From TrEMBL:
It comes from the Bacteria. This is peptide chain release factor N(5)-glutamine methyltransferase. The keyword Cell membrane does not apply. GO terms for molecular function: peptide chain release factor N(5)-glutamine methyltransferase activity. NCBIfam families: hemK_fam, RF_mod_PrmC. Residues 121-204 form the Methyltransferase small domain. Residues 21-74 form the Release factor glutamine methyltransferase N-terminal domain. Keywords: Methyltransferase, S-adenosyl-L-methionine, Transferase. The gene is prmC. It catalyses: L-glutaminyl-[peptide chain release factor] + S-adenosyl-L-methionine = N(5)-methyl-L-glutaminyl-[peptide chain release factor] + S-adenosyl-L-homocysteine + H(+). Pfam families: MTS, PrmC_N. It is an enzyme of class 2 (transferase).
């Protein structure tokens, strides 16, 4: 069987919610992963044969994808901000919108450093860190900064710790519940707090793909319909105690609640800037005092 045959089988047998081009990309990623070849090699050598062992692995991957399991979970890895992360069912698969949040933080820090050299002293906390994608990507780009990640899930923190090591970075991970108003890291103050907290309302479940609903951790995704901004309220209160007076918060948000999330933060004394993602949706907020 050749690379080209594998592509044809994937295109014909993947579930219908994968469009043809997406199915081709998935076949390419699976072949790259199993046969240890680059994307360009794969594209230029569609007539190369796979071994029987590789063919068995590629069909096993296809079988799991047909059950709806996301590709990243099947391959146990995901790309984020040009880095490779280990993922499993205890962590959310890092999303491209979150790469935009990281990019915004880095642009902001570099702009500030141009005015005053502050990077050495920079301390950052990422709340709801999951796979650790945000703090690890920040640490790779701000090697002098002291960076921490917080999550309620010990399994997620285990994966995040592995990801920090995998990417040669030192990040301090802390277990804690941001919805516990007594949770504190006194006397620590951070220059930057980032968060991509759970923000999908229960009623949005019906519009979601089965592969997200059935496989990604619900504690990472969902908030009650009656209190969709619950995490932002607690993050704002935590920031009042733990953000340096000149510090900034960078948040990923539900596209439907941009104005409401800004209003919540402003009611707590923060100034805000709302930013759209590359698809034109309200997706990020910067807040400062
Ligand atoms: C949307 S995921 C974001 C994961 C990662 N930061 C990313 O961008 O891919 C939200 C994360 O918040 C964590 N989380 C949920 N409830 C929490 C709580 N009460 N306190 C702290 N972390 C919580 C989940 O375990 C999950 O890892």
């Amino acid at each position: 069987m050749t690379f080209g045959d594998i592509e044809t089988i994937y295109v014909n047998q993947l579930p219908s919610f994968y469009e043809k081009d997406e199915a081709k990309s998935i076949a390419a990623l699976a072949v790259e992963h199993v046969c240890n070849v680059s994307k360009s090699y794969y594209l230029l050598h569609k007539n190369d044969s796979v071994t029987l062992v590789q063919e068995t692995s590629l069909i096993r991957i296809l079988d799991e994808l047909r059950l709806g399991r996301p590709l990243q979970y099947v391959m146990e890895e995901a790309d984020f901000f040009g880095l490779r992360f280990k993922v499993n069912s205890s962590v959310l698969i890092p999303r491209p919108e979150t790469e935009e949040l990281v990019h915004w933080v880095l642009t902001f820090v570099k702009e500030k450093n141009r005015i005053k050299r502050a990077e050495e002293a920079l301390s950052v906390l990422d709340i709801g860190t999951g796979s650790g994608c945000i703090p690890v990507a920040l640490k790779r780009n701000l090697p002098e900064a002291v960076i921490c990640g917080l999550d309620i899930s010990s399994d997620a923190l285990e994966t995040a710790t592995a990801n920090a090591a995998l990417n040669g970075t030192e990040v301090r991970f802390i277990q804690g519940d941001i919805l516990d108003s007594t949770f504190s890291l006194q006397p620590v103050r951070f220059n930057i707090i980032t968060s991509n907290p759970p923000y999908v309302t229960s009623s949005e479940k019906k519009g979601m793909h089965k592969n997200v609903l059935d496989f990604e951790p619900h504690t990472a995704l969902f908030v009650p319909d009656e209190d969709p901004l619950i995490f932002y309220r607690y993050i704002a209160d935590f920031s009042l105690r733990h953000l340096d007076s000149e510090g900034s918060i960078f948040l990923e948000i539900n596209e439907h609640f941009g104005a409401e999330t800004c209003a919540l933060l402003e009611a707590k004394g923060f100034k805000t800037e709302l930013k759209k993602d590359l698809r034109g949706k309200d997706r990020m907020i910067k807040a400062w005092r």
